[in-house]
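Explain this record to help learners:
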Amino acid sequence: MNNPVIFCQNLKKTFQDGIREVNVLKNVNLSVAPGERIAILGTSGSGKSTLLQLLGGLDKPTAGAVFVGGENLIDLSEAERCYLRNHQLGFIYQFHHLLPEFTALENVAMPLLVRGAKPKYACAEALELLSAVGLRERVTHKIGELSGGERQRVAIARALVTKPACVLADEPTGNLDANTAEKVYECMLELNQALHTSFIIVTHDISLANKMNRVVKLVNGELHAA
């Protein structure tokens, strides 16, 4: 059996609100297999985005452990966590967080350049991914010249250019109309199948959730099968 790409055990996250302690996540356990697509549902404020940040090593849990590629994030230094994120994970957000001063090609090549890849290689890989998401003719356009759906497809290409084991997506179509969202869904699913990359997608969209292999729901800080 393949080892999970991400695994969390007894994950807890508590915030201090004045003198009150708020338990956002309580004993969350989740295992994600290679190539698996998982949707996380939950009401606003239920802790979905917090869980995604913990799984991606962007925040530290109050208790519990998160393993990415077999490494316990708690045991790593900040530099080691950054290295692991860059090599094992990709991130997609509701708002694309692309760099407006750069072209689509330069935005997608950026994660490879950050890890020290040669520009020629980084651009070739970026071009391949942009072609895969249907943007071959838009690679030299700056972000402001692209539509919302095109920008989100650039963000997907950027998340996948490093060939990560898993992509963490937080409401990736929440800012798009239904027709554009459907195209973005299909793009993610095709790349999931082609690259065997796992996806963990936080969403309010039931139609997107139903396209996943598994759906889980956060209720009162605990994760349940939906």
